[in-house]
Predict the structure.
Amino acid sequence: MEPDLILELVKATVALFVIVDPVGVLPFVASLTKGLEQDERARVINQSVIVGTALLFIFSIGGHTILSILGISLASFTVAGGILLTILAFRILLQGGEGWQTETTTSGVFPLAFPLLAGPGAITTVIFSINTLGIPYSLIPILAVMALTWIVLHSIDRLLTIIGGTGADAIARIMSVFIAAIGIQYIVIGLQDGVAENLNA
């Protein structure tokens, strides 16, 4: 493997890890899985990582094609993701940890797998990385980051022991402000890119 390719792989892996931010997601996992048995919590985490990995694989391989078929620009997709994150942030801020809860068995898919682990930022990153790495090398950063994410998320028991349910709920409310900021940032970036695309058209 050429040194330049190794460097691009490292850069892509680091960038994706920073965006996925599994350590920052831990308080939300604590809130999402509050009251679940250990086996059920592990199931939610496993399902979320698998679904998140699958989504990133799909968008890495065919992201441009998927958006093109649907007639959606990358800028519009980024704005939509930002709006989704902002709504989620307000829900958590008002409801605390309960803002993560759903009444269906798909709670592992939303909101942990999407839009947190495989959100618009991560999807945009993998779509861009295929331009520099190509297939199959663009899949390596995804596998590495999601494997690390799985390890980090399964340390949730230690977190719950340290901060407890009340602490996790408080952290979720505080972190919702940062999620809102990220959501707004996605909206702004998407709008800027959309205007630039229209001007260049």
Summary: The mean pLDDT is 81. The longest helix spans residues 156-200. The radius of gyration is 17 Å.
